[in-house]
Amino acid sequence: MAPQLGPHELMHVFSFLEARDLLRAAQVNKVWNEVAMTKELWRQLCLRRWASCNAFPMVVGTQTWRQYYFCRSELEFRVESGRPQDFISKAVSGHTGKIDQLAYVTPHEYRFDERAKSVVCTVSSDCTVRAWDLHEGAEIWSSPVQPAPLMSLVAYPLLQLVVTVDTQGLIIGWKAETGSLWASFCLPTFCSSMEACGHSEGPFLMVACAEGNLYTLTVPQLQVVSKVATFSHTSVSLTCSPDQQWVFAFAQGSDLGPKVFYTQSLLYPSEDGLPVSTSLPVRLSSRACWAPEEAARLMVMHRDVRGTHLVITTFDLKARKSRDRVNTLEQQQLASFPLPNTMTPHLMQGHGSQVILLASRSELVLFTIHGLQLMAFQDHQRPITSMWVDPTRVITSSLDLSLRVYLWNKKNTCPVLKSCYQLPGGSHRWASGFTHVKSDSMSIAGVEARSNGTSILRSYCYKVQLG
Question: Which residues have a Cβ under 8 Å from the Cβ of 366 and sit 6 or more positions away?
């Protein structure tokens, strides 16, 4: 009679199996079932399939690793298929004005239990900020009417904090769970740009105002850490790098070269008060984005020397230390290419380390940083208004009252984007198109502009049998 494998030997053998084979092995007998259901085996399966489990850990005590595996597998299937039965669509109304921005405050990206829900906050010209449960299609809370219309917001999901700014420069931090006011700070002038910075040494807020100054504030206290002059008396746009180590600042349409600041020098200013920065050798910049998989790779859209053609130039940045302190920034021009004269891009995003996505009118176009056009999509009938890009999907919103979902093919060495399905909005009689779109793992939220000048949220929540 052949000797039987013990639990330790079975554990080793089962560690090479996929989920389907592991379930079959569990049906052989009681011993095999106990080993096949071992927590560590299913944990390894999850980590092998989704490296992001380390970035978005399972909520302790709410589910087993086996439940997590099957719930997330089901979610991926529904996201890829996009059939009407795969999601629940709701129209969520409450604002009496135009919604100018939205942000997710969901603290856990992948949570599959009775408390799983997607929460977004919105700011509106009706002078309120509101929080919404997208799965229930209901308002959670609304702020008191503020002195001026709210124009932008950023979120810190792990802190359950939302920060808003109004048209007069008043910045307020709100508790995302209750809507109670946490802290406030007033800029001397109109705010032109605001960026959340989740730095390793603590969260901060970067704010540029119309006079050209860049403020760095602590979060959640909203106390000033530093104030730096960027471009005199002009509106400045900001964008932080994926690792939060760099801040790109530029004045649209200015002959002055855009600047890159080293975040650490803004958080801990030196005695002379001058942050570590560098000016890029381009002019008339209009758009910029960072490469998500390269911490210090920046793509900038600008005009050529004559000012006649649009060009995209890619820079790699590097910090140089002296006496354990960064005191200079080095820049290397990695690539540059002119855009076709037929293109007038108004949206720009990066993917991976080599891909640039551009929205030009109703067309979505993908280029490499060296100028090779990978693909182009003309799925929309009217201009694209917003674009959401993450490692698995691209979602576009349009004035044709639709959202388009694209999926990255991870099996290809060269990034390939596939146009998958369309999520329709409401009636053209009452709506004038989608103006914004954002997403988390479980849902998609779009801002639908109404013909009467107001806005509503339209949510699409994927159905998953919770563990």
Answer: 355, 356, 357, 358, 373, 374, 375, 376, 415, 417
For residues 10 and 382, what is the distance between their CA atoms, to the nearest angstrom? 59
- Residues 460 and 444 sit within 8 Å (Cβ to Cβ): yes
d(CA 83, CA 98): 30
Yes or no: domain 1-37 corresponds to CATH 1.20.1280: yes
The angle at the Cα of 104, spanning 361 to 293, to the nearest 5 degrees, equals 70
Q: What is the pLDDT of residues 268-317, one digit of tens each?
A: 887 766 888 999 999 888 899 999 999 899 999 999 988 889 999 999 99
First CA to last CA across the chain, in angstroms?
A: 41
Q: Is the dihedral of CA 319, 388, 155, 166 positive or negative?
A: positive
Burial class (CB within 10 angstroms; exposed 0-12, middle 13-18, buried 19+) of 346 = middle
Domain ranges of the chain: 1-37
For residue 445, the cross-strand partners are 438, 459
pLDDT tens per residue across span 45-87 = 888 888 766 655 555 556 788 888 999 999 999 999 999 999 9
Backbone angles phi, psi at 113, to 5 degrees: -150, -175
d(CA 142, CA 140): 7
Contact 155, 104 (CB under 8 A): yes
pTM for the complete prediction?
0.92
- Tell me the CA distances in angstroms from 171 to 166, 192, 221, 400, one per residue in order: 7, 12, 11, 34
Token look-up 């530093």 returns 226
Q: Which residue carries 């760095």 as its tokens? A: 216
